[in-house]
Amino acid sequence: MKEFTPTSYTLECVATGREFEDEGWMIEDRECPKPSLIRAKYAKKQLELGPAEHGLYRFADWLPVKRMLAGSSAPVTYKSKGLAGYLGLENLYITFNGYYPAIGATMTTCSFKETEAYSVCARAAEDEKRVLVVASAGNTARAFAKVCSDNGIRLLLSVPAENINALWFEQPLNPCVKLICPEYGGDYFDAIRLGDMALKSPKFYAEGGAKNIARRDGMATTVLSAVTTIGRIPDYYFQAVGSGTGAIAAWEANQRLIEDGRFGTNLMKLMVSQNAPFVPMYDAWRVDSRDMLPCDEDKMRRNAEIIDAKVLSNRRPPYGLAGGLYDALKATGGDVMVCTNAQARKAKALFRELEGVDIYSAAGVALASLIKCVEAGRIEPDATVMLNITGGGEEHFKEGKELWYLKPSHTFSLDPDPADVVAKVETLFD
To answer: Which CATH architecture has domain 131-202+401-430?
Structure first.
């Protein structure tokens, strides 16, 4: 890509307020006495949009990136007519992350996880010799695989065996991308644990999940898209959550936009939702607990198998730590809701009928929650509402294409020997 000046920023610990320099790939404040997220504090307080052809990097002022990678797309926000009319909302804005060229949406992995991948990978140094490790329930893996394959970045993915059908691509991937899996019966948490075992080798380094400022600020471009399109900060923000990282990112972007000074001073109410029966954050929020409640691991695995929106099945979300989802919900007067598979399916069908494109189950959960809130009279008809459609257009994208699927190099038991994991993954990149 063209010459690019790395974005200027410092880091701040949410818990203590300590400000410090980013020494490279910092995902926490080593001096902080308790669990806390860190945030980027950008030198530019007013966001200046780059040209549309820069894709996601048109928001580079507020992305912690060293370079621009090839192939990115930005989220697209538009004012709804069909769905808005059906719901009786005068100012419903849809931020679409996926493939829908009719509105200018060209994310070929069809998921907003592309916003994370292009930001995270552009934060890494171009001469990084270690292998990036990413654990995923599916969509994140597909996004990172595409970005790393297209840009020659070495990547080790860990994805549950029953979710690897999500690893479809238009063409074969660069062999710099490898996949390992916990066997059938495992879930996202098992994939995280397997990835952590690989990280015992110095050949690998962790992407960092919610703790990585690049992941959150990449996801925050959905809000930057909405606000720069609408011209103001919305009153409500709707999204389905597995980890809650996207909602945390939305809250952080909201605070930066207030400081920008051109878009209002309100905090969006974060209206997040989970897919029943997998609802650990809802359970904690309902009893106003900062800590996740005790749970039966086998029951959580079973519940994860039941839900349509597999990407929402995170058993260890960044909920209670400083700057996590609990704090975001408290700060914004938000709420956690629950939707069933049936409600999400009905919402998906409604979106296709009224807005013209298919959406993922997670986005269906978000829309189902919006429908519930409207029916309960919780949303004023003239309120400005942002609906984050986190994935869609897959059926549209796949039409007439012969797809290629990434296969695992190794499948491990749910209780593998860590030394065996390290030995096998190291040979993948010799």
So the answer is: 3-Layer(aba) Sandwich (3.40)
